[in-house]
Known about the structure:
7 strands, alpha/beta, single chain, seven-stranded mixed β-sheet, globular, 37% helix, binds S-adenosylmethionine
Amino acid sequence: MSVSDAFDEWARSGKDQGMEERHWHTAKHALARLPAEPGDTILDLGCGSGYAGRALRETKDVGRVYGIDAAPEMAHNAASYTEDDAVAFAIGDFECLPFDDDSIDHCWSMEAFYYAEDPRAVLDELQRVLRPGGTFYCAVNRWEENVHSHEWEELVGVPMLLWSEARYREAFSEAGFAVASQDRIPDTETTIPAESDFPTEDWETRTAMIERYREYGTLLTVGTNTA
Ligand SMILES: C[S@@+](CC[C@H](N)C(=O)[O-])C[C@H]1O[C@@H](n2cnc3c(N)ncnc32)[C@H](O)[C@@H]1O
């Protein structure tokens, strides 16, 4: 199945909103760090329901947000969740961004980068569209050290990268980004049932669930365009 077919189906069945709710647990902490100034232009790569752009308009008064998503139904849903004219959504691919050189102040992406077929091409595109000093905030819940995420490729049914923390840093550097920071943001909100409730449908042990959410959470790698 293609990534756009998979996520079109998620959008049609309303799973985009559940995904937003789950991702918001850690995304809100990462977004709070984004050094956006009032009036800035923000790109959301693989925007899903578009919650990040809506939040940045409210909390940081950014001037414009563009959400790009490969799944037409996702972009359509995202557009239907806001009446804000400063937020726009388009169907597109990370590897070919419809923006001029140096036209974006900051780029945000949550749980999307690992779907890239050619991650270097995506990073090169970001280098092109980000202004000097602009940042790429790349948040993922699936990566090598988070062993609990390894089975997701099979569950979702589309190919996914499984990079280590070091590989993210290396790839950013190779593409010309200065790695400003990399850390794990714990998810302190997902409810973890009592010991007596395990095993659950999704978790064999309480220890594994605690590790997944409280210890690993979300990996945030921040690159700065030093061009
Ligand atoms: C797991 S969802 C995450 C959505 C949203 N960022 C969030 O945090 O809830 C991944 C999204 O990335 C999109 N996507 C995957 N590969 C893409 C690509 N190459 N270009 C554009 N969008 C892509 C999918 O269609 C999907 O909506």
